[in-house]
Amino acid sequence: MTKRILNVVTNVGHYDDPSHATGLWLSELTHAWHVFDEAGFEQTLVSPAGGASPLEPRSLKFPTYDKTAKAWRADPAKMELLATTKSPEEIDSADFDAIYFTGGHAVMYDFPESEGLQRITRELYERGGIVSSVCHGYCGLLDTRLSDGTYLIDGKHMTGFAWQEEVLARVDKLVPYNAEERAKERGALYEKATLPFVSYTVTDGNLVTGQNPGSAKATARKVVEALAGNTSQTHP
Asked: Which residues pair with 134 in a beta bridge?
């Protein structure tokens, strides 16, 4: 049966300082979307508030802005998907086999406190579905608790955008908190690559995480692999 992926994107367009724009890091969506599409998966976009997801300007200049990202921006139908994302209230977790949290610094603001996303993630994870994130996408996992009250990431090996990478990207003074440190405070067994900005992924059971923008393809492939070995998923 066709696997179904829920891709999560942000609704936020700037840092605390409105003069500094941010948003979805486009390639973190398009690289994964391409991998999932090639695997024959059905895909849906959701955001904390539903509706439009703005693009991170820097993501349109970075080396990861490649043919998949450029093709997405040139496709009116694809851009319409980003303009009309679903809200968590419209999503039944039972309809999906995996959730994939994209990044961009914007997600630091609206992912963590979304109770709707937490609900979907918890329900999916507890029935054996795949929970995945890339780069800052792990901010969507920071406050998610399981039914027993423990943090989902407590005791789990995982990765995400490193504080060292924030400093090298020169946004350490702009970001609202240190995501790496916060993950560790939640009990996560945080890992990162030896060198910054190289592709790095970690799989711990049905939790799949990637460190930075360059990790999106590898993260998506790990999700595909995990789903290939997951025979417990059923749909109505």
From this structure: 210
- For 110, phi then psi, to 5°, come to -110, -15
pLDDT tens digits, one per residue of 17-57 = 999 999 999 999 999 999 999 999 999 999 999 999 999 99
Secondary structure of residue 33 in the 3-state scheme: helix
Size (the chain), residues: 236
Buried b (16+ CB within 10 A) or exposed e, 63-99: ebbeebbeebeeeeeeeebbeebebbeebebeebbbb
pTM of structure = 0.95
Bridge-based pairing of strands 42-46 and 130-134 is: unpaired
Q: Between vectors from CA 88 to CA 117 and to CA 155, what angle results, nearest 5°?
A: 15
Q: Which two structure tokens, joined as six digits, stand for 218?
A: 């590898």
Write the pLDDT tens digit of every residue in 122-134: 999 999 999 999 9
Rounded to whole angstroms, what are the CA distances from 187 to 44, 82, 128, 158, 192? 30, 33, 21, 11, 16
Predicted local confidence at residue 63, as pLDDT? 83
CA distances from 125 to 137, 141, 170 (A): 16, 11, 34
Query: What is the separation, in whole angstroms, between the first and last Cα of the chain?
Result: 11
Q: What is the dihedral of CA 49, 103, 119, 144, to 10 degrees?
A: -130
Q: Please, what are the domains in the chain?
A: 4-228 (3.40.50.880)
Question: What is the β-pairing status of strands 42-46 and 4-8?
Answer: parallel
- Cα gap 51→45, rounded to integer Å: 10
